[in-house]
Design a protein that fits this description.
This protein is an all-beta fold and about 120 residues long. The strands form 2 sheets. Strands 2, 4, 5, 6, 9, 10 and 11 form a 7-stranded mixed sheet that branches. It has a 4-stranded antiparallel sheet with strand order 1-3-8-7, with no helix packed on it. The radius of gyration is 14 Å and the shape is globular.
């Protein structure tokens, strides 16, 4: 069974940087799309960034993080990172990694999500 695990969260001061990592484990045939979402206090979960497994497709970002956050694949492994720079207090949230992938012997793609990881931006 596929599991998604995030790491790298924590407390950082405004203007600082953090790098979130996400790894999928299990029997994975192929990954279609990798995403980061976040849920800020008192708000619904919102989309942050998407990266397709097709290299020529450019990554996409929510306007609020564009030019500050970078989504990338660190290797051919089923993993995706989110480099967050110039962090602001309003970036405080639980960040979730999601992947659309083809598991094991299945013939249909499914979405898998991690448990989420806390990022707190505070003086």
């Amino acid at each position: 069974q596929v599991q998604i695990t995030e790491s790298g969260g924590g407390l950082v001061r405004p203007g600082g940087s953090l790098r979130l990592s996400c790894v999928a484990s299990g029997v994975i045939q192929r990954i279609s799309t990798m995403r980061w979402y976040r849920q800020r206090p008192g708000r619904e979960r919102e989309w942050v960034a998407t990266r397709s497994s097709i290299a020529k497709n450019p990554p996409m970002y929510h306007d609020s993080v564009k030019s500050r956050f970078t989504i990338s694949r660190p290797s051919a492994a089923p993993a995706v990172d989110l480099q967050m720079n110039s962090l602001k207090p309003e970036d405080t949230a639980v960040y979730y990694c999601g992947m659309t992938l083809l598991e094991g012997q299945k013939s249909d793609y499914s979405d898998y999500w991690g448990q989420g990881i806390q990022v707190t931006v505070s003086p």
